[in-house]
Design a protein that fits this description.
The chain is an alpha+beta fold. It contains three helices and five strands. A five-stranded antiparallel β-sheet has the order 1-2-5-4-3, with helices on one face. Strand 3 and strand 4 form a beta hairpin. The chain is globular, with a radius of gyration of 12 Å. The two termini are about 25 Å apart.
């Protein structure tokens, strides 16, 4: 997973206080990629980030949505002090609330 400017958004749609990370939607690592992205922005070890992803969203349903919804699907949720948007085009956007 790497940090990147989102390809599926226009430059004007990107928040100035957001961080965007790339992932491969067809791989089974989407949940891990989300935790790593939020932890990177928070500056916290992924194993110690609270709340846990499974406490804020149904991880299995999230993976199913992203993997079956195509490039245009997006799922947004709050994870602690961060707003997280996962896009089917392979991007995770993390914005501090």
């Amino acid at each position: 997973m790497k940090s990147a400017q989102p390809d599926c958004l226009s430059d004007t749609a990107v928040s100035t206080n957001s961080s965007t990370f790339q992932f491969e939607p067809e791989r089974e690592t989407v949940v891990v990629d989300i935790v790593e992205a939020v932890s990177a922005v928070a500056g916290v070890d992924p194993l110690h980030f609270e709340p846990r992803l499974h406490d804020v969203v149904d991880a299995d349903a999230l993976v199913e949505c992203i993997q079956s919804g195509g490039d245009d699907v997006s799922v947004s949720f709050e994870m602690g002090a961060y707003d997280v948007t996962v896009r089917g085009c392979g991007e995770i956007e993390v914005v501090e609330s």
